[in-house]
Amino acid sequence: MKNQIIGGVILLIIAGLFAKYKVFDDKVELKYSLSEKIPSDFVDDIDEEGIQQLTIKNSGSVLISSIVIKINANVHDVKVNKFKSTDSISITKSNKTSEILYPEIPPFGEVIVLLKVKGSSIDKNNVEVYHSKGTANEAFSDTSSYRDIVFFTVLFVYLIIIFFYLRKGFVDLLESRAKYSYLDILRRKKPWYVKDSKWIEIRNSAISNYIEKDYTSTIEKSESYQLLNTEKKEFLSEDEWFDILKKAEDKILRKITEKIYDSYYNMSFEELSNLKKPINISYKNWKKINEEISKAFCMHKLRDTFLFGHIDLVTNILNSQKPEVVTDDDWSNLKTILLTYYTSNILEKGVSEISYKNYIDNVNLDILEPSRRTEIVNVFKNIKEGYEKEEYYGQLLQIIHEMFYWDKVPNKPKFARVEDWKKIEGLYSQVIKKKKEAMDNLSEAKKIKAEFVPLKEKITRQLCIIDNLLNEPTSIDKIETFDNPFAKGNWESV
What we know:
By secondary structure, the protein is of the alpha+beta class.
């Protein structure tokens, strides 16, 4: 576009130079005219002779010099009426040609040449006039006029081309400004050189860029939000206003979507949660936007809850009022989920701490529904009783382990119930009785063992000797008297 403007300027300079040298520069124009033959018998009574007047006139604005007048015909006599009496001329004449050399003719000056001829008159086509700057034209010919018409026609066409060339450059400039200086375009009235359809196209482009190049990150400070929250601009038509509002709505929806996406990572939802409805956005569209913000708000709170696990954060949300941007259904669902999380967290911590302190007395149950609060209290009551029973019976079990070392039943401990202690005493009596019986049986077994072992060894020795005798009868002589396990009668039998 910049190149087009420069090109247009160059064309204007060329046109100016052209006009200067062709229109406004010094004009060189030498013309001549040849009269009809005038019979000379009016003067000297000579038949067939006549006089023709050749007029050469400088109708231009510069001095014309070295003028040559050539007559291609038989001229009887030539007479020149000089422009100045001091002009020096030269005349050369033959049967077929006459040539006159005239020094110069100033602007608007003229020279008259009288030609005396016999017979037929001289035709204008037989006359030629030259000079130092060109050729003279016959005064009544249309050559000069035709050339001027052609020149001015070409110049007019050239100027038309320059106009359209510059017009295109200026239109392109407007299109470029619609991308960056869109407000200037929208505030401006249609230039006379721009077509209506093109001007509408340029303004539509400015409107699109007005919205699309809204890069402000804060939603309420953005151009789109400001447009949706203000009255119609005077420089916009009704159609343009509706169009720009629609584009602004789409832009705000995209910005909110981006904020929602960013809120999952940036840990901040304050801007969206405090966003107010602009006056120029429909309730239907704002409801859709509001639903998206509401769901994102709830997801944001759930993310913080499960990510950080702070019970204080949960209680703060449950004790707070519903934000305007959150729908009733989303708020109810969020509270249900958080109450479930809060309850499970109480149970999880309580199970690990109930044996050391009365945990439930230090927990805030006011935010729970009465029915759920009762359920949790009963659960912890049962858990507490279970821990107490575990501790009680653990102590009783320890007493049972120790009773095997008692000499007699000790006094009942304070923690033990009477009925449980009676059972332990009964168990102790049974244990001592069984223990005595076991000791008696063990003593008898030891006595039997003392009698049985030597007998077993004797029999084993006898069987060994009998086995050796069966295998080697001569081994009987090797048995010593002190080593003989047989009785006397039995040995003799052997």
